[in-house]
Amino acid sequence: MVQQILIADDDAAIRTVVSQAMMRAGFEVRATSNIATLWRWISSGEGDLVVTDVLMPDGNVFDSMPKMKNSRPDLPIIVMSAQNTFMTAVKASEKGAYDYVPKPFDLTELVGVVRRALAEPKNDGGRLAQEENGESMPLVGRSPAMQDIYRALARMMQTDLTVTITGESGTGKELVARALHDYGRRKKGPFVAINMAAIPRELIESELFGHEKGAFTGAQARSTGRFEQAEGGTLFLDEIGDMPMEAQTRLLRVLQQGEYTTVGGRTPIASDVRIVAATNKDLRQSIARGLFREDLFYRLNVVPLRLPPLRERLEDLPDLSAHFFAQAAKEGLPRKMLTTGALDVMRQYTWPGNVRELENLIRRFCALYPQDEITAELVESELANDVMQFGGSDDNGSGPVDLSHATERYLADYFSTFGDALPPPGLHARIVREVEYPLIAAALAATRGNQVKAADLLGLNRNTLRKKIRDLDISIVRSIR
């Protein structure tokens, strides 16, 4: 029996091309330009699948989808929309859509989505989440790169799968983690974040799992850890690549067994949290260097999600800039806008600091310049200052990097993550350790693991080098060829 596709779109050209594509794929087709007709067909039992736009002349299809799903729980609905925002993808998922396809779309891809939907076993309907009041925008952008992110997030909202978010610094990894929580099945529970790079190594296990009174010097009372604080919600492990090996082992045990013990405790505590991890490092390289457990990597990387750098989504610059201008205005700063020439200049820049760098630039414009319109000349001046200040290059890192400026930039970003507060004590030791590891590892690699030559290259005593190799857990590479 030939399967029938119901198509609803107020654009006659789209109805035609989609109908033709479906007929070439061997389906029967019925097409309409309004929700009322679509509902009449569905309620009478017609159609095996629906492909529909969101905004129709007689209403919003999201308002009608609950009754469609109640009437025909097994009927797959694929939502198309030119409103390519994160909230559109989320609402499509909440209302029970099989998938969300942003316009413009590839007809071959759409046919593939239809075939997959029809091939899947039928179920008795999904959970319909209540629609959020208002349309806040935790994620901004309509580029193809962001559409892929929105679709992936929409599919993960109603699951508890562990997610690992990768991306350069400033791409918005914590925003994505919060979106997964705020629009997911655990949104009524707590969202707890911990930055592994900001916690002294010797305190990470206590921070994660808590400790009992007397567990170590200074433990004068029982303390709850982040796992306990996140019970029933989401635990966001930021900069997971900086987690020390001993803590990795304990985290792996929690993921495997679903329970943990506090530091100094003996009674296992059941864990009910969703884990979302994030890193700007290549964890596979860390595994090869012996710095990250491979078994933990596969436990965390159930759903990998890569956030694109801003230079891969430059078409989002107008939306992002308008968003940050609006945020600044809400905080009492003067409202401003960018000229066309200013946007053209911004599109030529590589944005090494990504969206965070753009946000800081917009705030600077609002705070420092009296003009209502930000011109190309002002943008060029500010971006040139950034390049000079941080030793950046316009070729995205292919030029030489000034270590002093790079360190200054890293520390500026690091301090900004704490807002008005200060990082934990011991900053000097942590920074020295982070610089010392790649320095010694590079020297050992250059000398093919010869510690005598490496010590001479570094200007260190051989015994001192051996101790540092041991303390830093550096794997010795005997050959680089």
UniProtKB/TrEMBL annotation:
Compartments where found: Cytoplasm
PTM annotation (4-aspartylphosphate): residues: 53
Example of a GO biological process term: regulation of DNA-templated transcription
Sequence ranges assigned to domain Response regulatory in this UniProt record: 4-118
PROSITE patterns: RESPONSE_REGULATORY (PS50110), SIGMA54_INTERACT_2 (PS00676), SIGMA54_INTERACT_3 (PS00688), SIGMA54_INTERACT_4 (PS50045)
One example GO MF annotation: phosphorelay response regulator activity
Domain of life from the UniProt record: Bacteria
Residue span, Sigma-54 factor interaction domain: 139-367
Alphabetical keyword list: Activator, ATP-binding, Cytoplasm, DNA-binding, Nitrogen fixation, Nucleotide-binding, Phosphoprotein, Repressor, Transcription, Transcription regulation, Two-component regulatory system
Keyword Nuclease: no
GO CC term, one of those recorded: cytoplasm
InterPro entries, A to Z: AAA+_ATPase (IPR003593), AAA_lid_NorR (IPR058031), CheY-like_superfamily (IPR011006), Homeodomain-like_sf (IPR009057), HTH_Fis (IPR002197), P-loop_NTPase (IPR027417), Sig_transdc_resp-reg_receiver (IPR001789), Sigma_54_int (IPR002078)
Annotated signal peptide: none
Function: Member of the two-component regulatory system NtrB/NtrC, which controls expression of the nitrogen-regulated (ntr) genes in response to nitrogen limitation. Phosphorylated NtrC binds directly to DNA and stimulates the formation of open promoter-sigma54-RNA polymerase complexes.
Protein name per its UniProtKB record: DNA-binding transcriptional regulator NtrC
Organism: Fulvimarina pelagi HTCC2506
Lineage, top ranks: Bacteria, Pseudomonadati, Pseudomonadota, Alphaproteobacteria, Hyphomicrobiales
